[in-house]
Amino acid sequence: MTWATRFRIREYLRESLWVVPSLGAVVGLLGAVLVVWIDQHVKVPAQWQYSPSTASTVLSAVAGAVAALTGFVVTVMVLVVQMASGTFSPRYMRLWYRDPVLKGVLALLIGTLAFSFWVLRRIGDKFVPDLGVTTAEVLLIVGLVMFVVFLNRFVHRLRPVAVTALLAKGVRQSLGGDISGTRGVRDVFAGPLEGIDESPAIAVRCPVPGAIQAVNLSRVAVWAREHECLVVMRHSVGEFVEAGDLLFEVYGNPGPADAAERALRGLAALGLERTIEQDPAFALRVMVDVANKALSPAVNDPTTAVQVLDYLGDSLRVIGETDLSTPSWHTGAARRGVVIPVRRWEDFLGLGTTEIREFGSTSIQVMRRMRALLEKLLQEVRPENRAAVKAEIARLDATVAAGFAGSIDRDSAGIADRQGRSPLPSSASDRARSAPSAPARRTRRPAPGRTGCRCAPEPP
Fold first, then answer.
1. Are 31 and 139 part of one and the same domain?
2. Residue 137: phi, psi to the nearest 5?
3. CA dihedral of 118, 121, 126, 128, whole degrees rounded to 10
């Protein structure tokens, strides 16, 4: 079994909604067998003993309640899928499918149902599994508590800010894995490949269409060193490739072409859509989609876009503080190793800001929050990344000038504000504009017939 096959199986198991509940049913049946065996060999206290009719009634009620609760959980799932797809982004569903609480609730309920049915069928005139009936009651109570936890969790996760926070966490995890996976491997170079006029010895093409979900870069580098050749990746992780597109090019003498193609194809996993594991840009993409939908004319919710910019700015700061440099390929380098396409800081910054800036060009909240985001990035990212931030600030200036041309809010839209439109001044220019002017001194005139007052004399 190749590495790519194992990766796809692991991803399928993590996203599947039936594997863990099926295991719960098996555990429930095995637990019922064990409990019935204990009931046959252990005498339980009198307060735990049931008559056959009472035990049958209790287990039937437990089975019915669990079945109804399972159906309600499935209904909530369907409603959440519809709401999340319409409000946030269909790509958010990958995170929903993987949630362990959802699978744990389904496994507990289905396991309780299987347990209750098995214990129910063992009730007879001379034998009542008393411990099994009590255990079924306890499992029902635990299932109700877990359902409340499940409902609370996903009601809160329907908020845009919660979705964005979850995606920002995915950016940190993905960025750490992506950087460590690249830095910890020898003989990895950043493309493009230049200075080689010869044709590749082997061209490895994609057998099926799909998105590149992950690549085992360390194994590719080891294979290249063992065969004394140069492997060039033509597409980055997250990019969609069609059937027959170039996936790898091999320069050198790697041996039999069939064996080389099988080995390299087995190190690149293709799937229906992108994943966050090795593709931090995908998490940024989903966050931007949430903000874009909030800024659409049908929704018109710039405050949600501002909340997205809060976590988007944190994610961009983490990326901007990370050393993304990879040794570039040059003609003097050894003809051994891996050449890969690498995303630069400019790519991440443009992905996170361009569309929100365009769609929010007439929203004073979005323009002010984005300026605060960029000014903070300008202070905190690595020095070599600041030029791109300055260029993005210049684009923001042009967008504000075009979007608020002729508007009395033109000066206000060009001010940085971390809350979008906070009730308090957020910058020196804000404070200067909002500070009340000093009242003019009024000259008091002396009352008629009075002398000796300290008022200024009346001019003639």
1. yes
2. -65, -45
3. 40
228 and 359 both lie in a single domain: no
340-398: per-residue pLDDT in tens? Answer: 888 889 999 999 999 999 999 999 999 999 999 999 999 999 999 999 999 999 999 99
Q: Examine the domain organization and report whether 98 and 121 are in the same domain.
A: yes
Tell me how crowded residue 392 is: count the other CB atoms within 10 A of its CB.
22
State the angle between helix axes of 130-156 and 100-120 in degrees (0 to 180), rounded to the nearest 10: 160
For residues 106 and 24, is the Cβ–Cβ distance under 8 A?
A: yes
For residue 197, give the CATH number of its domain: 3.90.1170.30
Q: pLDDT of 87-145, one tens digit each?
A: 777 777 777 778 889 999 999 999 999 999 999 999 988 889 999 999 999 999 999 99
* Whole-angstrom distance, CA of residue 357 vs CA of residue 395: 9
> Does 286 lie in the same domain as 257?
no
Domain end: 254, 271, 288, which one? 271
Residue 14 included in any domain: yes
> Are residue 133 and residue 196 in the same domain, yes or no?
no
Task: Say if 447 falls within a structural domain.
Answer: no
Domain count, the chain: 3
Q: Are 200 and 232 in contact (CB under 8 A)?
A: yes
Range of the domain at 149: 3-158
Amino acid making up residue 378? L
- Measuring CA to CA, which residue among 127, 129, 115, 124 is closest to residue 62? 115
Q: Are 50 and 58 in contact (CB under 8 A)?
A: yes
State pTM to two decimals.
0.80
What are the tens digits of pLDDT across the range 118-128?
Answer: 999 999 888 89
When pLDDT is averaged across residues 28-32 and rounded to a whole number, the result is: 96
